UniProtKB/TrEMBL annotation:
<keyword id="KW-1133">Transmembrane helix</keyword>
<feature type="transmembrane region" description="Helical">
    <location>
        <begin position="12"/>
        <end position="33"/>
    </location>
</feature>
<feature type="transmembrane region" description="Helical">
    <location>
        <begin position="99"/>
        <end position="117"/>
    </location>
</feature>
<feature type="domain" description="EamA">
    <location>
        <begin position="150"/>
        <end position="279"/>
    </location>
</feature>
<dbReference type="GO" id="GO:0005886">
    <property type="term" value="C:plasma membrane"/>
</dbReference>
<keyword id="KW-1003">Cell membrane</keyword>
<feature type="transmembrane region" description="Helical">
    <location>
        <begin position="210"/>
        <end position="228"/>
    </location>
</feature>
<dbReference type="InterPro" id="IPR037185">
    <property type="entry name" value="EmrE-like"/>
</dbReference>
<keyword id="KW-0812">Transmembrane</keyword>
<feature type="transmembrane region" description="Helical">
    <location>
        <begin position="180"/>
        <end position="204"/>
    </location>
</feature>
<dbReference type="InterPro" id="IPR051258">
    <property type="entry name" value="Diverse_Substrate_Transporter"/>
</dbReference>
<feature type="transmembrane region" description="Helical">
    <location>
        <begin position="149"/>
        <end position="168"/>
    </location>
</feature>
<keyword id="KW-0472">Membrane</keyword>
<feature type="transmembrane region" description="Helical">
    <location>
        <begin position="73"/>
        <end position="93"/>
    </location>
</feature>
<protein>
    <submittedName>
        <fullName>EamA family transporter</fullName>
    </submittedName>
</protein>
<dbReference type="Pfam" id="PF00892">
    <property type="entry name" value="EamA"/>
</dbReference>
<dbReference type="InterPro" id="IPR000620">
    <property type="entry name" value="EamA_dom"/>
</dbReference>
Amino acid sequence: MHEAPAGRSGWTLPPIPAVLLAVVSVQGGAALAKGLFPVLGAAGTAGLRIVLATLILLVVFRPPFTRFTRAQWLAAIPYGLVLGTMNLSFYLALTRIPLGLGVTLEFIGPLVLAVAGSRRALDFLWVVLAAFGIVLITPWSARPGALDLVGVLLALFAGACWAAYIVLGGRLSRVLPGGAGVAVGMVFSSLAILPFALASGAVAKLSPTLFAAGLGVALLSGALPYTLELMALRVLPSRTFGILMSLEPAVATLMGLVFLHEHLSPVQWLAVLLVSAASAGATLTARRAPPPPVEA
C-alpha cells in the first residue's frame, strides 16, 4: 500500500483505476465540450476551456513569474502556443467528424513520435496497423455519409501538435518541473486562443449555465485527469501508463455514442481498434518513448 506523502491530506486511488478514471474524464469533458459547439462554437468553447483551466492552474500552483529565467520562458512559450493550437484544431475537427474518430486520428501524432527513428520490424508493424486504420477512416469519395476531409486533416494536424507538445513538455519539465511549468504554459495557450474565441462572439453568448458547463469541461479535461495521472505515475511504470492511455480512442467512441449519439460504421470501429492496438503495441515495445500526457 502506498501512503500519501507526509503533510498532505489528499485522497488517493490505486494507479490503474486512477488512469482509467482520467481517460473517462478527458473524453467525458470532450463530449461535454462538443455539446457546447452549437451555442459557443468550437473556438469559443476551446477558449472558455483553456482560459478557465489556466485560471485554475494559476490558483493551485502560483508560479513565481518574476523569478523565471530566460531558458524557462523560452521553454514555456512554445509549449503553451502548441498546446493552444492543438486544442483549437481538435475542437474544429470535432465540428466535422465524430468524437471517437477525432481522437483516433489525433493519436497518430504520439504514435509516430513513439516509433520515430526505430529500425525494428516490430515497430514497423505498429505503423502499418495505424496506417491501415487511417486508410479505413479517410473519406475516399464524396458519397453521402462520408467523413469530412477537412475534419480529418484538422484532427491529424492536432495529432502533429500533440507530438510537438510531448517533446516541448519534456523540455519544459527539465527546466521548470512541476505544475508551475504547466500553469505558465497555459497562460500562453490562452493568449494564442483568445483572439479566435473573441472573434467567434462567444463572450456575448455566455450565460451562467454556459459558464458552469465550460468550468465542467475545464475540470474534466484538465484539472481532474492531470491530478489523477500524477497520482498514478508515482507508482505506475510509464509503459503500463502508456498502454492504458491507448484506450482513449475506444473510450472517446463510446462517449460519443452515449452522450452525442454518434454512431460509427463497423469499418470505422475497426479503424479505432487498429489505432488503439498500434498505440498500445508501440508503447509496449518502445525503448524510451514517453507516454502521451494529459491534454491540458
